[in-house]
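Postdoc handover notes: sequence design on the structure in folder B. Input tokens:
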């Protein structure tokens, strides 16, 4: 498994600013190396805050040469303000020159997938496969993750079928303990297809789960523990989130 790197910042604003700078540098390096980049975005306060910081200082990112995916999505109608893609567009994507064909949003809960999150999950798995060069899932340059206080990442919650999934890369969640209950999510096997996985976490309420995950708790108990990158797993924390770690 990849090495775990822990980076602690004095406060949430510094954390998000430094994570955004690292994101820009990583995307630019990938584009210089291969001519393109592939990233997975996340929602939540730190995830959207990071995108806002990238909007402020986008560096030399070529927005026409990047594929953008999502780690999970609330299964809600198009344009619902609670959807991660709607928030990401407001924070960043509506303000840069992205290629719309390379922004791969998860299906919405209306139209052909209305009331059928399982079909939506299958459809998104097909989207991943179509951009994977003959494999089932692309090798993402970065998979961004936030984390809940109980250790959930994407919509993979402790002691659920979704976090136990070992074969499918995208699944529907119909009983999320955090509203809304219906979601579509990448699984841990999909997360592990990223070259680097970044967990950007802030706050005292997350400290116990951060410490347990880094110590190697079973993923079924602390899902974040199972989020590992091919080359690197980076925990980007503020001092509050890092407060339970050994010195």
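Designed sequence:
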């Amino acid at each position: 498994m990849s090495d775990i790197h822990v980076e602690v910042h004095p406060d949430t604003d510094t954390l998000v600013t430094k994570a955004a700078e690292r994101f820009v540098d990583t995307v630019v390096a990938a584009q210089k190396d291969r001519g393109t980049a592939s990233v997975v975005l996340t929602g939540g306060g730190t995830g959207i805050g990071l995108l806002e910081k990238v909007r402020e200082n986008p560096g030399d990112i070529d927005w026409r040469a990047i594929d953008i995916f999502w780690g999970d999505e609330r299964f809600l109608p198009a344009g619902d303000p609670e959807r991660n893609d709607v928030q990401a567009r407001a924070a960043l994507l509506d303000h840069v020159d992205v290629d719309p064909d390379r922004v791969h949003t998860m299906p919405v809960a209306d139209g052909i997938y209305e009331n059928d999150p399982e079909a939506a999950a299958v459809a998104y798995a097909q989207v991943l496969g179509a951009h994977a060069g003959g494999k089932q899932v692309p090798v993402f340059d970065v998979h961004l993750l936030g984390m809940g206080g109980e250790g959930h990442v994407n919509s993979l919650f402790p002691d659920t079928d979704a976090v136990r999934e070992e074969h499918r890369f995208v699944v529907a969640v119909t009983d999320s303990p955090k509203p809304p209950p219906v979601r579509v999510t990448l699984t841990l096997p999909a997360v592990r297809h990223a070259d680097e996985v970044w967990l950007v976490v802030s706050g005292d309420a997350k400290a116990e789960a951060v410490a347990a995950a880094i110590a190697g708790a079973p993923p079924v108990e602390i899902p974040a523990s199972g989020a590992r990158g091919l080359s690197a797993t980076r925990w980007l924390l503020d001092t509050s989130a890092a407060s339970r770690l050994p010195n």
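Context for whoever picks this up: The first strand starts at residue 3 and ends at 9. Don't rerun without checking with the PI first.
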